[in-house]
Amino acid sequence: MTVKTLTIDGQMVSAHEHNTLLEAAQESGIHIPTLCHLDGVGDVGACRLCLVEIAGINKLLPACVTKVSEGMEVTTKSDRLQRYRRTIIEMLFAEGNHICSVCVANGNCELQDLAIEMGMDHVRLAYQFPQRSVDTSHERFAIDH
């Protein structure tokens, strides 16, 4: 396997060519926020929280599905990324039923933790208040979307 050398937030990092930017960052102790990256499940870049800036590329790329390449210069923390990530978290809160005060996970919630990390203290978007029924079609399990 070929090893690639790149820079993440000014830190020189080495990673195998098959690694993603997220894996390379995590192995180097660099934090990139994620929601949809779960151990044992394939990455698809759906939540977009792991967006990073890469020198020479205009658009933001998801770190969980972008492979490392030699000489890459990656930025994981910038005002632009902070604004994007905060907006994503706000959209999740506005789209779903996130009444934290009555949730059993209140205080132990990945979404709440990310909102705090992004500096979110209110939602600037209109709440959608979706009417989703509880699915009890299985004899042992129910899911409240």
Give a written overview of the molecule:
The chain has 3 helices and 7 strands; from the N terminus they run ββαβββααββ. With 145 residues, it is an alpha+beta fold. The termini are far apart. The mean pLDDT is 91.
Q: Quick recap of the structure?
A:
With 145 residues, the protein is of the alpha+beta class.
In round numbers, the mean pLDDT is: 91
* Cα shape: globular
Unreliable stretches covering 5 or more consecutive residues: none
Tell me the fraction of residues in β-strands, as a range. Answer: 15-25%
How many DSSP helices? Answer: 3
Structural class: alpha+beta
Termini, distance in Å? 43 Å
Secondary-structure blueprint:
Elements lengths: L2 E6 L2 E6 L4 H7 L23 E4 L6 E2 L10 E3 L3 H17 L14 H8 L16 E2 L7 E2 L1
Parallel strand pairs: 1-5
Antiparallel strand pairs: 1-2, 3-4, 3-5, 6-7
Distinctive features:
single chain; 145 residues; alpha+beta; five-stranded mixed beta sheet; two-stranded antiparallel ribbon; 3 helices; globular
